[in-house]
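Quick illustration for those who missed Monday's session on complexes.
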Amino acid sequence: MVSTVSVRAAAKINLHLGVGAVRDDGFHPLDTVYQAISLYDDVTLTGAVVPSLELECADYIDAGDVPIGGGNIAFRALEVIRARTGRHGHEAVEILKSIPVAGGMAGGSADAAATLLAYDRLHRTGLPDDVLLDLAAELGSDVPFSLVGGTARGRGRGEVVQPLDDRGTWWWVAVPSGVGLSTPEVYAHFDKLFPDALAEPAEPADLLSALASGEPLRLARTLHNDLQAPAVDLRPELGTLIDRGEGEGALRGLVSGSGPTCIFLCDSLDGAHAVVAGLRGAGHDVVLIANGPVAGAHLLERP
Ligand code: C5P
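Prediction with cytidine-5'-monophosphate bound:
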């Protein structure tokens, strides 16, 4: 009987984020294209007598920004899946974090997705994939995508995920911010800036054909984020950062999701290294390289 399971889940970026007018339930209708990129959180679950959480963070993450009590989304994921399976008992949770916190890269969603999958495998729940996806949607709009990974279209409030064929290898530079941005705050600011937003979010038609072409320059021209204006209005330095990254040779810079992480599409790995060097030279200490698309939440081999 396995007593420990480790699952890896990736950060997400939005290549297209079309946002419609706020719905009656307080969520916004989305038409988005997600991509999973190679920054990861690993979640390990071990059967235990009492619940516990151990956290280890990459040096650019402030562990103090991650809730460690019942407010941690991994505990919420455990509650939700335990309720669905009717099981009792507890788990010790270890999270190894490399995805920036409150950065618009779905780090919390990755932890939730990894926890659901780890629980499923640890206890051999036998839950079908569609039930895991429903539980994921209960935990947050981005959590189903964290399970699925790759490149995918998201609709509804982001939780209705349809995988897309993406054979490109896209190189990204990501610049997290030392101070997170609250997703609800950015959406509320979108409502304020765009009181006449259409009910239907913008579709990613041009982006889908650019993705199929595999050409970075074509993709760069079609990247789009309706949350960029509110995020930059709240944090004007993000606009400066985007200009700087593009000045250093990135094909295109944009805010990732609700921000404040900014991402830059580059023409190659060498191109990404040049942008990193330029941004470091301009005083940005934390500048990361990632490629996408990568897999959704998956089991790690134990050493
Ligand atoms: O679903 P999730 O928990 O990630 O959403 C966090 C918050 O972001 C919501 O409470 C809501 O304020 C905002 N949100 C939204 N529309 C979406 C997704 C999130 O307004 N489609």
